[in-house]
Amino acid sequence: MIELLGIETFNAVRAGLGGAEIAVPKTSVLTEDHLIVRRLGWEVATQLCDEFASSKMYIPKRDPGNQERDEYITNAIMAGVPRNEIALNLNLSASYLRRLILKLGLSGFVVNEQDECGTPPIPPTVSSGGLTRHGAFCVPTRHPTPESRASGL
User: Fold this and answer.
1) Taking a C-beta distance cutoff of 8 angstroms, is the pair 122, 115 a contact?
2) Angle CA(46)–CA(61)–CA(73) in degrees, nearest 5?
3) 137-138 and 21-24: which strand pairing?
4) Residue 38 confidence (pLDDT) above 90
5) pLDDT over 90 percentage in the chain
6) Taking the chain, what is the end-to-end CA distance rounded to the nearest angstrom?
7) Which of the 8 DSSP states describes residue 87?
């Protein structure tokens, strides 16, 4: 639609009819009383009818690639802003924000804090729950690779 009508006309159509499913009439049957003409004005309505006459279409409510919103979410996540605060600032529900974060590939992203020298903090250790002697702590380890195993065993 944008390629055929241009971005300005598309934005006018979306602003006037966003969220509606319409049957686009032929330009010859348009009158001043027609819903499309009342909502869009004569010029935009005739452009729409010239390109899409005799078709049924859904007019999206807003740009699905909302660039400004996505940039704000990305920058806020990178800056460590709490997700509840981001949702409140954008007037979004927490569940919808989670879907957007997943779509943007930021799910599970955590900002690594650094000290004054730029060194990341040492990750916290996890207690073994008393399963090892002397209250030792467990830390995640990788499984040995064939190259690191003792040969001949």
Assistant:
1) no
2) 140
3) unpaired
4) yes
5) 37
6) 68
7) H
- For residue range 102-149, what is the model confidence (pLDDT) as tens digits? 887 787 766 655 445 554 444 444 455 555 554 444 445 455 555 655
Residues 6+ apart with CB under 8 A from 62: 14, 18
Q: What residue has token string 């241009």?
A: 6
Three-state secondary structure along the chain?
Answer: CHHHHCHHHHHHHHHHHCCCEEEECCHHHCCCCCHHHHHHCHHHHHHHHHHHCCEEEECCCCCCCCHHHHHHHHHHHHCCCCHHHHHHHHCCCHHHHHHHHHHCCCCCCCCCCCCCCCCCCCCCCEECCCCCHHHCEECCCCCCCCCCCCCCC
Q: CB of 83 within 8 A of CB of 94? A: yes
Tell me the one-letter amino acid at 120: P
Contact 102, 78 (CB under 8 A): no
The count of other CB atoms within 10 Å of the CB of residue 47 is 19
Q: Which residue has the tokens 């195993």?
A: 149
Tokens of 125: 């250790």
Tell me how far the alpha carbon of residue 48 is from its chain's centroid.
29
